[in-house]
């Protein structure tokens, strides 16, 4: 006959129990002189007592039996660790002496069992001195009446389990959870926690302040009601998939603020694991990214605008290359460089004002700088008169080209081509229309208007009528040009440059 490693030579006790020669509870029960206890010699014990004792000794569940008038204490190996230093002296002693320090706590349950009523307690807290000092302990157990051979209640039977480790761990977990949630509540960002099923178990104060929700409306899946209806299904589906896969996720959706305004938010989360790697749920944060999205959209629009303007500039340069005429290469180069420089100055003005528009006087000064002289000059070759006017962005480039062509013509053929000549540029706004007058005086004598129009003339005409949607009137005086422009200050005009 083979035995387990823990087993040793055995012998049969007088009550038929299998008593091992090792120092276990069964062996101690066999060796104890019961005649000196209230239970009396083993041979006088009722069959019911032997049956319950045999049941206990063959069970791995902690059990004890309190039998007879003094509720003498009997227990199994599994119960011995619960007794601590009181084992093995607790065998045969009255129950009230074995657990004297908690007898008052246990007595009501003992009395109910002896009266025929079973009792169940879960995680009962008791302060024990089983090892010579006070210990906080927790137990889950049942007390049941134990009957003798005649069916009378002769004692009390208990199955129990010490749950101290479990309770302490759960309390530590709750404490950690409490600290964790306190940290979440102190965070300026909106934060949330779910259970393993994906139900939201905590939303921090920032969430409630932002959305106006309460615990009653936000926990569980209630938080989804604050998500924009058009984003709700996608958000719920993505969230459920991340929970099922226990994986991190990030998504954008529109979130209703407490004042009813919809704001763009980014929701990012990671799975939460315990020390053993067990999935506990997700923890995530929600940030208002509306301002960032607006900035990104503006940047995208600006990039498109820059691309559009660059193409317009290239179109104008191509037109200038195609239509510029000159008797020789140096003349051609000078004419082309001047027109490209005018475009560059217009682009710089727009860039400085973040493409919102350009100051009209600054634009004019850029083209006429050599003739304006210092601000305190007594008799500058060119003078500017008019109120502050901010040109729409779409109007800036074509007007810069128009002014450049007028200035180029004045320098080559008009008032600015001679020392005595001078120029006066005046402007005002009348019912949303820019009225600009270009007046040249004391220039070379003009016997008659030019018979043919060059690139500059075509640029002026195409710009005013075709692009700016305005009107132009040119009067050729004997000593200079008189040009009257009427230009609507519209912001919806095209920026294409129809030259050719």
Describe this structure in words.
- With 500 residues, this protein is of the alpha+beta class.
- The chain has three domains: 10-162, PAS domain (Beta-Lactamase, 2-Layer Sandwich); 172-288, Beta-Lactamase, CATH 3.30.450.20; 294-488, Histidine kinase-like ATPase, C-terminal domain (Heat Shock Protein 90), CATH 3.30.565.10.
- It has helices at residues 25-31, 47-57, 80-83, 95-98, 103-114, 164-186, 205-211, 215-218, 229-245, 290-323, 329-352, 360-372, 393-412, 455-467; strands spanning 10-12, 18-20, 63-67, 72-75, 119-128, 135-147, 153-162, 190-194, 200-203, 249-256, 262-273, 279-288, 357-359, 382-385, 390-392, 422-430, 433-441, 471-477, 480-488.
- The strands form five sheets. The chain has a five-stranded antiparallel sheet, with helices on both faces.
- It starts with 9 loop residues before the first strand and ends in a 12-residue tail after the last strand.
- Pfam families: HWE_HK (PF07536), PAS_3 (PF08447), PAS_4 (PF08448).
- InterPro entries: PAC, PAS, PAS-assoc_C, PAS_4, PAS_fold_3, Sig_transdc_His_kinase_HWE.
- Residues 249-301 form the PAC domain.
- Its EC number is 2.7.13.3.
